[in-house]
Structures are given as structure tokens and as C-alpha cells.
Amino acid sequence: MEKPPIAAVLEHYGATDVPEGSRFRKMKCPFHEDRNASASVCTEENRFRCFACDISGDSFDIITDQEGCRDFNCARACATKLLGGEYGTVRSGSSQSSGRPSRRVLDESGPVRGQRSLLSAGVRRKPLAGA
After folding, report:
1. pTM of the predicted protein model
2. Which of 20, 61, 79, 111 is the most buried (most CB within 10 A)?
3. Nearest 5°: phi and psi at 61?
4. What is the distance between the alpha carbons of residues 103 and 98, in angstroms, rounded to a whole number?
């Protein structure tokens, strides 16, 4: 899935000089007044984290938090409106385009081969003291 670049999202919300690179780099958080760098960003992984105001996540998480979105479609619409472009669409080379699910779906009839169910094993949680 195509996500908006984290640098563009942070610059939209007021960040200046977003450091590029494959590792997390220090920067001033655009969401509160900073004298010293209290946030870190990794543009290659598309991730952001502020240790002072506890805002973190990828570009969709930041947009969802700042715009008050409640679902993915709202975040995708906001990203398109704020930054232009088409974000949140599945790339054509993914496994979903072949009609097969990308994850193995287990049937709920029993445990996976080689595993025992907690109920059949007789494992029970002890009650809390005083309960």
C-alpha cells in the first residue's frame, strides 16, 4: 500500500529540516514548542516518534491523530486533500491482485497441528487474591 512520505506530512504540520536517512534521526517536534530535539524520524521506514508529547506512528497515524479521523478511509481522504496524490491504494504487484489472500486463514475447528488447545490441556488461570 502506498503511504504518504512522512517528511511531507511533518512539513505540512510545520516541521522544518526533516532529516533523511535509514536510521532514526533527531528533530524538533512540529506538534509542540521545542527548544531541543525531542522527536525522532526515520524517512526510510516512514516512522515518527515524539518522546515529549507521545505522538508516534507512520504517516497515516499522524494524519489520523491530527485531523481527528476515525477510520482508514477518512485518513486516506485527508492525505489526498493535504498532500495531493493518491494514497492508500494497493499496489498492483501485491498478492491480493492475484485473488489469493495474503495471509493463511486458519479454520476455527481446532488448534494448529502440533499445538494443543489450552482448554484441552487443563491449564487454568489462578484467581486473583481476595477475589
Report:
1. 0.64
2. 79
3. -65, -40
4. 13
